Amino acid sequence: MPDLNLRRPSVTIADVASAAGVSRATVSRVMNGRSTVDPAIAARVQEAAIDLNYRPSNVARSLSLGRTTTVALVVPDLGNPVFQQILRGVTSAAAEDGYRVLVADAAEDPSEEAAIAREARMRCDALILVAPRMAGAALDALLPLVTPAAVINREVDHPATPSLVIDYADATVQVVEHLVGLGHRRLAYLAGPRAAATDAARRSGLVAARERHPDLDVVELPVGADLASGHAAAAAVLASRATAVVAYNDLVAFGLLAALNEAGVAVPGDISVAGFDDIDLARYATPGLTTVSVPQAELGRQAWRELHAVIDDDAHPATTTRFTARLEARSSTGPVPRTITRAVVTEPVPAAAPEPELVDLGPVWSVEPREIVLRHTRDRVPLARYVDGERLPAIHSPRPYLHPVHSLAGVPLTESEPVDHRHHYGVSVAVPDVNGTSFWGGRTYVADVGPTLLPNHGRQVTTRAEVDPLAPHLLLDTVRWDDEHGNPLLDEQRRLGARILGDDGWALEWRTTLHASHGPLEIRSPATNGRPGAGYGGVFWRAPISQRTVVLSETGEGEELAHGSTSPWVAFVQHHHDPYTQDRPTTLLLAQTSPPRHWFLRAAEYPGAGPALAWDAPLVVPAGGTVETGIVAALVDRALDLDEAAALAAALR
Fold first, then answer.
1. What would you measure as the largest C-alpha separation in the chain, in angstroms?
2. Which residue spans traverse the membrane (predicted)?
3. What is the dihedral of CA 394, 400, 404, 406, to 10 degrees?
């Protein structure tokens, strides 16, 4: 049978008017949302439209209202993820009001922006300019021609044009204060486009930071705003002798990170890098990028709200909305390496007047925003940072961890989020299977299947971390382990202490007690689940990859002798590449604090080790019971031989 609907004539506005007993003009006013129609009549018209399945013509509606229900968005570079997120915010907010968004890309050409904006405005009801690069006079002349309009990342004086700005000056101060706190005093700023108001705001922040820190030296390098610009800047950055870099945005920072990696320069071991904007990839970079988080999508949403108010009411007062930014400190920034600090001194320093001798109290912990820092009282240089881990991805089994941990000479001896195992985080208590929940991160080994990504990742939550008031070298932390459903599984007490061993070494002690306070525990590993030799789980130290790594243990030299052994200690003797000194030997020695367990140790694939809780059999802890584990680590700024390592291990124990 033929579809009779195909031959049914379309319903017109006249049909609705006849059914509702009103004029076509009244139907038009109701369909266009005008408020001048009596509510009872409007309801009758709407019922008639529904009964007749009437669909208004968008073209006719636009002609009637003199509107297209579209808004144009002009951006400098649509390839920049920041502008993509702003577009997403505008699009979602405008859609709620029945508007669509058209996009124009100015390709970072200030001379073309005004023409592109005027042409876009001719096709739409309103215009949003995102971070325009054109000169102030050109922008002032343009705005009266394109109203209603809104401007993002540029403050304007036009009385009918709302503007939305980020306080990039304060954001810059936040970045610099973070780097100064890490000991950096010579920075390189990779400047963005000269025409960008956001670049001027960053410069203003640098001026404010220099006023706070008169000893701060900032080298300005004109670069640009994209990946290629950052990549091309690497040679100039290294020539500047800066110990830290502040990039104009995250794209520039990513380009620089790639070039530094190609040149064999370690970040942050040799130089720290920070960006701006916190685009989605920033936290997943290698290393994770320290940056300033900007509410990108919210900028777009708020811009539409302000613009829509102006569209609906020509007399609506324009406002300037200000947003603040938030520092996101990640793995790309760390303490200034002392070898580099000495290298940048090119002139002899006059002898200072003798000062009163200070008592060296050794390392002490201090509570700082979002982390707890271990500093040497002699020179306040950070030795280790204890991070709560709350912002780690769920798939990485979020947990508190230590990173970076440095030798006295500033060599980083931990690694976080490495490309080979993104769920490795410095020093932490990581266990792959506790009653079926993974506190290790990544894939779970399943018998007869192999490593499998399961939704079984738990979370370790710090409930009380404090520095011992009578012994400031001790950090005490109470940690609750929640399973993948958020239910408490066990409680942990951990004790982190530190002491100086001499001019070239210091010791870090990590003791952990697991309490089966919520019921019995069965701790397993891939080895107990059918993968021989993979008995990892417990206190685990992930070290950085170096030019050369030698493994020592009580049983001799070599990875194969240490892995799976119950040696009281193991050691990684490493040689690190450095663009200034070429070779920096270190020894990381790990000694067990409890009755010897089997060592899980890797060196060829990546350097990492820890005493295994469940090597070849599950570890069962009855309800109310406890299990203890831990290590004492010695970080030494020279290469130890087998006899020296054995003697140091005996002294530690």
1. 106
2. none
3. -150
Run of H or E residues at 136: helix 136-146
Quote the CA–CA distance of 421 and 606 in Å, as a whole number. 9
Residue-by-residue DSSP string for 222-249: E--SSHHHHHHTHHHHHHTT-SEEEESS
The C-alpha angle 260, 264, 267, rounded to 5 degrees, equals 55
Residue 170: CB atoms within 10 Å: 16
Whether the ω angle into residue 532 lies within 30 degrees of 0, i.e. cis, is: no
CB atoms within 10 A of CB 427: 26
Distance CA 535, CA 542 (A): 16
Contact at 8 Å (CB) between 362 and 498? Answer: yes
For residues 633 and 589, give the distance between their C-alpha atoms in angstroms, rounded to a whole number. 5
Bridge partner residues of 556 (DSSP): 553
* CA–CA dist 145, 305 (Å, integer): 21
The stretch 455-476 carries a mean pLDDT of 94
Predicted confidence (pLDDT) per residue in 163-188, tens digit: 999 999 999 999 999 999 999 999 99
Amino acid type, 96 = E
Cα separations (Å) of 587 from 59, 302, 363, 430, 606?
A: 75, 54, 19, 23, 16
SS3 301: helix
Host H or E run for residue 382 = strand 382-387
Contact between residue 429 and residue 494 where contact means Cβ atoms under 8 Å apart? yes
The residues pairing with 488 across neighbouring beta strands, listed in sequence order, are 482
**Residue 458 to residue 31: CA distance in whole angstroms:** 53
Q: How far apart are CA 13 and CA 25, in angstroms?
A: 9
Phi, psi of 177, deg, nearest 5: -60, -40
Predicted confidence (pLDDT) per residue in 512-543, tens digit: 999 999 999 999 999 999 999 999 999 999 99
Which residues have CB under 8 Å from 253's CB, separation 6+?
190, 230, 245, 247, 273, 274, 275, 289, 291, 332
